[in-house]
Design a protein that fits this description.
It is a single chain. This protein is mainly alpha-helical. It has one domain. The strands form three sheets. Strands 1-2 form a two-stranded antiparallel ribbon. It has a two-stranded antiparallel sheet with strand order 3-4. The protein has a two-stranded antiparallel ribbon with strand order 5-6. It is globular, with a radius of gyration of 23 Å.
């Protein structure tokens, strides 16, 4: 209150604060661009790990690395800390050895560049450009936007019978990626589901009240296109990653969210009518992979055995990057088919050659040997362990309060994505347009595991504030 007849100047509200915040985060735009550009329809080779095609998202990720390098030189910022440089840079050793020892080092060079892009350069650039938890959330949010767009296209494909061919019907949801990259939409949607689950469990401090129910609704809605993708590997990886995220968020929250997700899954699957028969058949096939496997499973087992045979031939260095296709026939049994059939989603029937083992660990083992798999998988393991330790540390020390707890949603996202990627690599490898997201994902994981959100933390020459 003021005295009668006295005028007091009141502070004017800041009307453009959201716009200023958005403008303040402009350096994160090059990180978001490769993600959102995957919402644009693409045409991309055969989707294998040996494809040399370059997507628009790949070009954007290359610009991301260039932008980061120029920014570092301009501001003369200190590069990665020794620990971070070791974790992110150690895969270069295996890549270099596998390239130099390949039968044709020149032919192996594109593989070297691809691995360097996805597992070294792009993750390092993401870590260097994300200044705080707010930047992390902007990038993570772009994954949800992409998942919603691609998921909506996938659901429409299933409903209208315009998807990729599956069991004689064009009902498989593949988004804009087409039948040559059937894992593309499933991967994108799974990323978005894991990201949306984190704020549904632990919203950021100061987040609007509507964020939690909306995030949970989005996570449940993304189950629909994920189911319609008929991707068993993506299903398994998403279930395990979701369980880890829910359990890390706390027991009480875990019980409530699991009950809601199970109920939603029952309603979604039970309400599909004829479609539920296809889904039930796909689910039951997971348990029949050893008793009565279909041809796709037989091919996968055969290629896994071929990869192991290649490693046994060259246990230390492998057969060289890009070497799996050339050595496949010499190590595969007669049970391997000539290729997989693809059709639908606007594409004519085409026979796609089987040029990779569809297991990232075995691909690395066969092409890079013990040196490569130790370096690359060791880097991934270090990031996963570091991320989990930071989440558990925030829980035990401050109960998701204070500096660590203020970014608990970022920790849940990072660990969830790390678990999803680790499990999915058992059933898939790199290849196709969606692979461009892999580098961004590992960058988010590395930011949480190596940089952290604590006040006064110095990483990559940037002070990370306590509150985003």
């Amino acid at each position: 209150m003021t005295a009668l007849g006295t005028e007091t100047a009141l502070p004017r509200p800041r009307r453009h604060r959201p716009a200023r915040r958005l403008l303040h985060r402009w350096p994160v735009v090059p990180v978001v661009a490769p993600v959102l550009l995957l919402a644009v329809p693409v045409e991309f080779g055969n989707g294998s790990s040996t494809s040399t095609n370059v997507s628009v998202s790949d070009v954007a990720s290359a610009f991301l690395v260039l932008f980061c390098a120029v920014r570092l030189l301009r501001h003369r910022s200190r590069p990665l800390t020794p620990a971070a440089a070791l974790v992110l840079g150690v895969p270069v050793i295996g890549l270099a050895v596998a390239t130099l020892t390949a039968d044709d080092p020149v032919a192996a060079l594109p593989g070297f560049v691809r691995y360097l892009q996805l597992f070294v350069l792009v993750p390092a650039a993401v870590v260097l450009l994300l200044r705080d938890a707010g930047d992390f959330r902007v990038v993570a949010g772009s994954f949800v936007v992409l998942a919603v767009v691609q998921g909506a296209v996938g659901v429409d494909q299933y409903a209208t019978g315009t998807g990729a061919s599956y069991m004689g019907s064009d009902v498989r949801a593949v988004g804009t990626f087409g039948p040559t990259d059937i894992m593309g939409m499933a991967t994108v949607v799974a990323y978005g589901l894991v990201v949306a689950l984190a704020p549904a469990l632990r919203p950021a401090p100061g987040a609007p009240r509507w964020l939690r129910p909306v995030a949970l609704l989005v996570a449940v809605a993304l189950l629909v296109p994920l189911v319609f993708s008929f991707s068993r590997g993506a299903w398994i990886a998403t279930v395990l990653a979701g369980l880890v995220v829910v359990l890390l968020a706390g027991l009480r929250t875990a019980v409530r969210v699991l009950a809601a997700l199970i109920a939603a899954a029952v309603v979604l699957v039970g309400g599909f009518g004829v479609g539920s028969q296809l889904i039930a058949e796909r689910l039951s096939s997971i348990t029949r992979v050893t008793d009565a496997p279909d041809q796709s499973v037989t091919d996968r087992y055969t290629m896994w055995a071929a990869a192991v045979s290649m490693w046994q031939q060259e246990p230390v260095t492998g057969v060289g990057l890009k070497g799996f296709p050339a050595h496949r026939d010499g190590h595969a049994s007669l049970g391997l088919s000539s290729g997989s059939d693809t059709a639908g989603a606007g594409h004519a029937y085409e026979r796609q050659p089987l040029l990779s083992p569809h297991n990232m660990y075995l691909l690395v083992l066969s092409e890079q040997g013990l040196i490569g798999v130790t370096a690359l998988a060791g880097s991934w393991a270090a990031l996963l362990v570091g991320g989990v330790r930071r989440v558990l540390g925030a829980r035990s020390a401050r109960g998701f309060g204070g500096s660590g707890g203020s970014a608990a949603d970022c920790g849940l996202v990072a660990v969830g994505l790390a678990v999803w990627q680790a499990v999915d690599f058992l059933y898939a490898d790199i290849g196709g347009p969606s692979t461009a997201l892999t580098g961004i994902v590992f960058g988010l994981i590395a930011w949480w595991a190596l940089a952290g959100p604590g006040p006064g933390t110095r990483f990559a020459g940037v002070r990370i504030p306590e509150q985003a």
